[in-house]
Structure formats: C-alpha cells, structure tokens
Amino acid sequence: MPIEFLVTSLVIIATPGTGSLYTVAMGITQGRLSSLYAALGCTLGLFVHMAIAISGAATIFHTSPKAFSMLSLAGAAYMLYMAASMLRSDGPLALNHDEPDRQAVQIIRHAIVINLLNPKLPLFFLAFLPAFVSASDTQVVMEMTILSLWFMLLTLIIFALYGWFAALFRSTLLSKPRVMLTMQRGFAVAFVLIAIQLVHSVLV
Known about the structure:
Strand content: under 5%
Helix content: over 70%
Largest sheet: none
Shape: globular
Radius of gyration: 18 Å
Number of domains: 1
Distance between the termini: 37 Å
Structural class: mainly alpha
Number of strands: 0
C-alpha cells in the first residue's frame, strides 16, 4: 500500500461525516459494541460504491446529472428522517433511549443505508482510486480492489475508535439529561445540515 494512499485515506476517513456521526451516536446511546456494529455497517456500505467505481458504472453520475440529482435528493430525505428520528423519544437514534442494546442487524442496516445514499462516495472512488494505480498495469482492477479493501479496513478501524471513545463518556452523559438533550438536538441539526448540503449540490 503506497504511503501516499495511506495518508490520504486517513485524512479523508477521519474527517467527520454521516457515517462517523452515526457511529458516535451509537457509542453514546448504546455502548461500545453497538458502535462497533455501526462502524461495520458503514464499512459494508462501501462495498457497493467500490463495485460501481471499479466497474466504471460511476460514469453515469458524470454523464447523467438527473441520476446524480435523484440520488442526492434521496440521501437528503434520509438525512431528514435521521434528524426526525433523533428528536423522537422512541426513535432509533434517540439519545435518551432507556432500552437495552438494539439488535445488531438493525444498527448495521441503518449504517449501510447511510453510506449507500451518500452520492459523493461513488464519485470519490472513481476519482480517488485511479490516482494510485498505474495506467500501464495489466491488473488495474485487481489493484483498485486491493486499495479499496485497504480503505474499507481503515474506515472500520477509525470509525470503531470514534465509537469506542464516545462510549467512554456514555455513563457520564446519560446521567445529565440537559447535556443529553443538547447533544440529541445537536445530532439532529448535523443531519439537517448534511441534507441541506446534498440539496444544494443539486441546485448549483
């Protein structure tokens, strides 16, 4: 794995986004194990984008603005759903939830959908991966696949660390209702801002 690829990947993955936000939320609301499930789901969501980029199908988003716009709007709608869920006392992301840890399947499913509806990921893979593969290489697909798998592994590790650190403060935060309410609203606002950004990408 080229050192340039490693450094660039770490910077990109560590930058806060929808996946890391969801993982942190799970760490706070459900604990360390649930945040690991969220990190796993976010990583699995990258498989589809990786396949699209490697197959070259991501060029559709370059040649068809309508397809990109529809995906962006779908992502924005889901972000608004996540924001609403955060504010509901019985929602899947509610920070004041008193139930035991949620089922792993449910957490992983939410995380996968979050990444599947991120329209920037297929374009990212299409533009990012070829920069580290030689055009003269006869095994370009294999090289891109290997680099993609490394990127996914790094994503899993970094997101798991995010969730682990968030879980460290879980008991302290849960004992402070006002702080929890503020964080609950903060997460909701963050999802709304992401939705606005996605809509803006369609309008500009």
